[in-house]
C-alpha cells in the first residue's frame, strides 16, 4: 500500500524561494535540471552521468491519480491492512531486531511498535519496496505542474546521494512517489535523517533493516516525536455527550475527558497530556484518544484513515487488543461522498478537493453542518445527512 501523499513531502531541503519551471517538453525540462545542478556546484561530468538514463514515466502519473483505497472507512481499511500474517511477522521482526529497537528507544524514544507498523504497511517488512525507477519518478512528478515544489528538490538530493555512492540513477527503485527503502523515505529525508545503523559506512535503506529503522526513528524525532510518550489509546464513550468536542481541534486532559464519561477501554490512562477524542466512523463506531505524538503521524502521511490505522496497529503490535468496531451508521459511497462535498461547497464550506475522500476539511465541514442542523456533530457523514442537504 502506498500513501496518499509521499512521506514527508512537505519537508524539502532546498532553500530556494521559488523553483524553476515545470511542464513543457521533458527533454528541455531535464536540460533545465542539469543547468541548475551545475549552478549548485555539482561537476558537469557528474551531472551528465546522473541524468543519462532519466526518462518520463507515464505509470507514475497514473499511480498518482489512482488512490481510491482511501475512500474506505477506517474499520474496512484497517481490517484489510492488518492481516494475521503482518501481526505474526511484526512479532518475529521485533525479536529478530530486538537490539536495534533497544538502541532506537534509548536514542530517539520511539517505540518499536510505531516503526514496525510503518515497516509493515509501507513495504511488508521490506518484501516489496516498489519497482518504479526512483529518478524517473521524481523527474516525472517534478515535470508535472501540480506539485513541482515538492518533488524538484528531491532530484538534487538524489544527486547528492549519487555522489556519495548511495544512489544508482539507472537501478535504484522504490515507490511511485520517489520514496526509497524499507520504510520509504525520500532522498532529502535520507540525507537529513539517514543513519548508518549497521556500521558499514553507508546508509542503505533498501538492504539494511538497522539503517532503515534507525533512520525512520531519527526522522520521527526530527518531526517532533515526544520521547517515550503514547500516541493513541482506545476508549469507550458515554451514550450522550457534546459530539462537537470530538476531532483533533479539541484537546482536554484525560481527567477532563473522564468528567464527560470518556474512559480507557482497558487499563489506565497512558499520559496526562492534553489529548483529542477521535471517532473515525461517528459516535457509534470505534473511538480513540489521540495524544500529541499522534499529530506527528500526519508529517509521514496526510491520509487520516492511513494514519489512524498505522497508529492503532503500532499499539496492537505492543499488546493492545483488536479494536471494538462498534455499530456505526453506514457511510457513504465514493459517488455519494462527492455529491456531499459538492453540496457542502455550495453552502460555503471549504471541503478541499471534491474527490470522494473523507479528508480533514470535509470532516470539519460535516461537523459544522451537523451542528447547524441539530444532528449529532460527530463528523461522520451518512445518507441521512446527505438527504437533509
UniProtKB/TrEMBL annotation:
Entry-linked PROSITE patterns: PROKAR_LIPOPROTEIN
GO biological process: peptidoglycan catabolic process
MF annotations from Gene Ontology: peptidoglycan lytic transglycosylase activity
Keywords: Signal
Domain annotation Peptidoglycan binding-like: ranges: 333-387
Domain of life (superkingdom): Bacteria
SUPFAM superfamilies according to UniProt: Lysozyme-like (SSF53955), PGBD-like (SSF47090)
Record flagged with keyword Lyase: no
Signal peptide: 1-20
Membrane-crossing residue ranges in chain numbering: none
Gene3D superfamilies reported in the protein's UniProt record: 1.10.530.10, Bacterial muramidase, PGBD-like superfamily/PGBD
Residue span(s) of domain Transglycosylase SLT: 26-314
NCBIfam families: MltB_2
UniProt name for this protein: Lytic murein transglycosylase
Source taxonomy: Bacteria, Pseudomonadati, Pseudomonadota, Alphaproteobacteria, Rhodobacterales
Amino acid at each position: 500500500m502506498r500513501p496518499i501523499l509521499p512521506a514527508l513531502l512537505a519537508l524539502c531541503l532546498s532553500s530556494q524561494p521559488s523553483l524553476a519551471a515545470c511542464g513543457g517538453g521533458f527533454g528541455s525540462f531535464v536540460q533545465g535540471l542539469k543547468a541548475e545542478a551545475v549552478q549548485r556546484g555539482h561537476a558537469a561530468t557528474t551531472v551528465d552521468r546522473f541524468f543519462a538514463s532519466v526518462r518520463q514515466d507515464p505509470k507514475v502519473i497514473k499511480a498518482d491519480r489512482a488512490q481510491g483505497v482511501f475512500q474506505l472507512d477506517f474499520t474496512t481499511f484497517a481490517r484489510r491492512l492488518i492481516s494475521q500474517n503482518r501481526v505474526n511477522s511484526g512479532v518475529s521482526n521485533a525479536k529478530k531486531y530486538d537490539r536495534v529497537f533497544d538502541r532506537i528507544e534509548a536514542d530517539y524514544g520511539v517505540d518499536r511498535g510505531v516503526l514496525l507498523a510503518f515497516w509493515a504497511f509501507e513495504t511488508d517488512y521490506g518484501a516489496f519496496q516498489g519497482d518504479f525507477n526512483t529518478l524517473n519518478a521524481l523527474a516525472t512528478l517534478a515535470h508535472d505542474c501540480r506539485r513541482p515544489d515538492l518533488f524538484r528538490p528531491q532530484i538534487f538530493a538524489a544527486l547528492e546521494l549519487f555522489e556519495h555512492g548511495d544512489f544508482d540513477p539507472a537501478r535504484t527503485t522504490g515507490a511511485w512517489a520517489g520514496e526509497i527503502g524499507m520504510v520509504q523515505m525520500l532522498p532529502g529525508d535520507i540525507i537529513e535523517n539517514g543513519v548508518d545503523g549497521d556500521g558499514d559506512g553507508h546508509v542503505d535503506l533498501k538492504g539494511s533493516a538497522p539503517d532503515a529503522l534507525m533512520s525512520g526513528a531519527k526522522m520521527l524525532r526530527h518531526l517532533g516525536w515526544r520521547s517515550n510518550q503514547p500516541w493513541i489509546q482506545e476508549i469507550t464513550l458515554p451514550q450522550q455527550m457534546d459530539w462537537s468536542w470530538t476531532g483533533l481541534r479539541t484537546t482536554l486532559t484525560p481527567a477532563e475527558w473522564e468528567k464527560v464519561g470518556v474512559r480507557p477501554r482497558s487499563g489506565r490512562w497512558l499520559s496526562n497530556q492534553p489529548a483529542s477524542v477521535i471517532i473515525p466512523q461517528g459516535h457509534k463506531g470505534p473511538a480513540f484518544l489521540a495524544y500529541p505524538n499522534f499529530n506527528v503521524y500526519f508529517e509521514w502521511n496526510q491520509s487520516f484513515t492511513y494514519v489512524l490505522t498505522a497508529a492503532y496497529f503500532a499499539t496492537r503490535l505492543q499488546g493492545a487488543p483488536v479494536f471494538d468496531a462498534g455499530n456505526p451508521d453506514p457511510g457513504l459511497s465514493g459517488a455519494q461522498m462527492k455529491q456531499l462535498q459538492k453540496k457542502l461547497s455550495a453552502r460555503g464550506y471549504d471541503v478541499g478537493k471534491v474527490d470522494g475522500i473523507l479528508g480533514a476539511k470535509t470532516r470539519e465541514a460535516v461537523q459544522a453542518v451537523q451542528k447547524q442542523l441539530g444532528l449529532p456533530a460527530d463528523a461522520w457523514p451518512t445518507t441521512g445527512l446527505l438527504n437533509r442537504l
